[in-house]
Amino acid sequence: MRHLSLYVGKTVLGSILVVLLVVLAIDVIASVVDGLGEIRNQYRFNNVLMNTLLTLPGRIYANIPFATLIGSLVGLGILAGNSELVVMRAAGVSLLRITGFVVKPVLLVIVLGAVLGEYLVPVTDQWAQSLKLMLRGDQESVSAHSGVWNREGNEYMHFNAVYPNGKLIGVTRYRFDDERKLQEASFSARATYLDSHWLEEEGQVTHFFDDHTEVEQFITRRWETELSPDLLTLVLMPPQSLAISHLHSYGTYLDIQGQKSGAYWLAFWNKALQPLVIIALVLIAVSFIFGPLREATMGYRIFSGVVVGIVFQTSLEMLGPSSMVFGFSPFWAVMAPVTVCILVGLVLLRRAA
Predict the structure, then answer these.
(1) How many domains does the chain have?
(2) Helix (H) or strand (E) holding 223
(3) What value does the mean pLDDT of the chain take?
């Protein structure tokens, strides 16, 4: 039985990896084509390729559920086409055990996705976004359409680019008094985080008075603030690029502050429940092979898997924003499609047993 498990596992895992490579290749080509329209200033074609390469871990992570569904259908379809599943069933191997054979290699894919999503994607996505903002933007001016804004008390800050190693490029700060009158505006070419403070370099400060302004230049300047590189990462990056631990802590922080946190909790549950999503899709694949797609051709199986994957993803994309609009928990926005898949898979397997 162990050899049988390894054989089924290798076939399914190989199919999943091939499908993942194909889907990833299509995604990369589409990303490069889209990036051509963003070329301007110092952002060139080689930078588009670098940006696509840096976002590769995130693309792998996002495509794992879809690739697992199609790959499982292809792998089991190969076994069914060679009548090997029929032989297994005739030898007394139950559907439950065959499902276990399929799930074992899928667990490796789940672990790979968890490692990518928690440790690699947050870093590479931040490098990619910082590279794009720095090369496409103007380091000596502020653009509302690029960089990142942050507020701390009566001070508003804008950064053209934020790097994971605690370095800022193009730092603009506006300080107001309690009556919302501008008191000070400053710009520095860069800022580096040193233990508990930032060190700004090569900048100037403009002081605003009732009847005149004063401008002073500086080579370096100490900047005391509660802002840290870790907090900047949470502010800069889209929720889907953050690690699960950061999503939970920042979502809780926003709840305490009375700010909107729905997007972060939705991303949290999407990532936390991804293993269950993958298992549910594998269950659908197994039930299809032993149920309605038992006699179907390989092409029809792939087509059916693509349709199911699109419907599943569309359901997630519709229910996610709906949870923020209508106020129900993002957990149920993710869990509802998963529950439907599990129920459909169990019903079809019960009929095929």
Answers:
(1) 2
(2) strand 213-223
(3) 86
